[in-house]
LysR family transcriptional regulator (Pendulispora rubella), 323 residues
Amino acid sequence: MGTLAGIEFFTATVEAGSFASAARRLGVTASAVSRRVAQLERELGVPLLSRTTRSLSLTHDGRAFHERCVRILGELREAHDAMARASQKPSGLLRVEIPVALGHAVITPKMPLFLAKYPAVRLELTLRDSFVDPVAEGIDILVRIGPPGESALIARRLGASQIVPCAAPAYLARRGTPKAPSDLAEHDCLGYLRDGRPDPWRFVAADGTTMAVDIKGPYHANDAAAGYQAALAGRGLVALFDFVVKDAFARGELVRVLENYPMPTRPIHALYPKNRHLLPKVRVFLDFLVELFRDHKTAKASASGPIARTDAHTADLRRAPRS
């Protein structure tokens, strides 16, 4: 396919429009450019340029070859930049946004470790559940629960979390343990409040279909922590992400119910604009998140056992229960 220099001389000639203009851009003579392009044509066995005394134009083969050369050189430049930036020290302002409950339960407790390892990075962390445009907001990394959807953002999967129905032992001793989703009609359920009413609880059947069950109870809130605290106090059943209730399960303060009726599992992704992924500060924080969720997955499995996987039936990111 000829040398890389020949390809560079050829693309420069096409972009500049003449051997002389390409030579000025490359800092060589016009005859050197002409000879190198002619050598490339001999190696390929086809003419790439139609030459007249007044102009140059691409042949049919030259046009197809030029398109590939542009892509090849672009990838080489990107690889060069990646290696150059990888050698740089992570520094500067890093803006990260994560869901509230996921942040409190999994990410923020480990932040001191990241800050100690990368003291030149200044971190601005926002905990919020609403979906925002990271490009418009100037956010470097956005962590979200749910499918990434169709967007120009790059998505890096961190893990997954299942919604788990549970209650305090005192509540179950007083009201009994539900055996099937239909039994929820006889129980106080602590729901996630959305648009003035609690979200239905969704269960995944053996065939993969989802069944929605309306719930009722004395207390609903638009924050996972509120339902969690009420459940600990024995005020009713609650359905929360496993990372919220993991420690309460380990202490025996909450117990899982309806284990034969799994609720959906939702993937967790780090989303970031394409132009951010080469920055050292972004790269090291993404690696930090991947390692953090790997450790969290191991701890979760040892504390509460395996979790059923139902990723194919997750809801849209904007409609997923906020965490």
About this structure: Residues 301-323 have pLDDT under 50 and may be disordered. The chain is about 40% helix and 20% strand. The longest strand covers residues 154-167.
